[in-house]
């Protein structure tokens, strides 16, 4: 993928340059601009069930495939302000992406959902993770800046669950309470995710769930009675 990322880490946008006959797959609603000889095709990519699995994982039911005739550009951006990085995947290094962080990828990259079991359920970050495999590049977004960490074999890293963006499938993970019930309820810390290498982990410097909680505190919803 020939992509240039600008305006990060606060308001990142990716511009993908397509050669003649080239293409890129984009999350529905993420397109900012098109330039040149570019057409768009909307589909569920893989049928109803795959579209449904993606939607349960926090992504749109539909995806958009952009195709270039003689060449062109497609600009993409996430809903929330933040950063964007390009990550390469291959058959030996599938990538697990947190709900809502996948923005675009080469058509050769398979974007599917993987059941996270109770680990994802109790994290509060959605029931599913998106598993990106195959051969190619993808654009991953965040809320806030993105920090990449490489873990050695057996090396551990603990993140607040809301700050997880993506990690390689070789990295083992588990979700637990941050501490005792007192620190969980009174200390402002909820659940954390423990990662154990080898492999790479991407974190975001802000948490969208914390943003939602802050908005609720400063602007509580008024209940209406009829």
TrEMBL record:
Gene3D superfamilies found in the cross-reference section: Mitochondrial biogenesis AIM24
Top-level taxon in the UniProt lineage: Bacteria
Pfam family, one: AIM24
Coiled coil residues, start to end: none
NCBIfam families: TIGR00266 family protein (TIGR00266)
Descriptive protein name: TIGR00266 family protein
Species the sequence originates in: Nocardioides aestuarii
């Amino acid at each position: 993928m020939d992509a240039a990322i600008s305006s990060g880490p606060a308001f990142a946008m990716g511009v993908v340059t397509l050669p003649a006959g080239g293409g890129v797959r984009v999350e529905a609603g993420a397109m900012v601009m098109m330039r040149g000889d570019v057409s768009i095709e909307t589909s569920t990519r893989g049928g109803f069930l795959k579209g449904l699995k993606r939607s349960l994982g926090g992504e749109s039911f539909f995806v958009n495939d952009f195709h270039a005739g003689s060449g062109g550009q497609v600009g993409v951006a996430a809903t929330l302000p933040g950063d964007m990085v390009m990550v390469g995947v291959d058959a030996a290094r599938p990538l697990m992406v947190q709900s809502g962080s996948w923005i675009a990828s080469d058509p050769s990259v398979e974007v599917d959902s993987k059941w996270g079991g109770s680990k994802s359920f109790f994290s509060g970050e959605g029931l599913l993770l998106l598993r990106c495999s195959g051969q190619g590049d993808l654009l991953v977004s965040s809320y806030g800046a993105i920090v990449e960490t490489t873990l050695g074999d057996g090396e551990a890293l603990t993140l607040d669950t809301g700050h997880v963006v993506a990690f390689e499938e070789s990295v083992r993970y588990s979700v637990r309470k941050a501490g005792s019930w007192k620190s969980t309820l009174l200390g402002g810390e909820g659940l954390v995710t423990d990662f154990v290498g080898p492999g790479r982990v991407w974190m975001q410097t802000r948490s969208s769930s914390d943003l939602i909680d802050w908005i609720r505190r400063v602007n509580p919803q008024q209940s209406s009675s009829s």
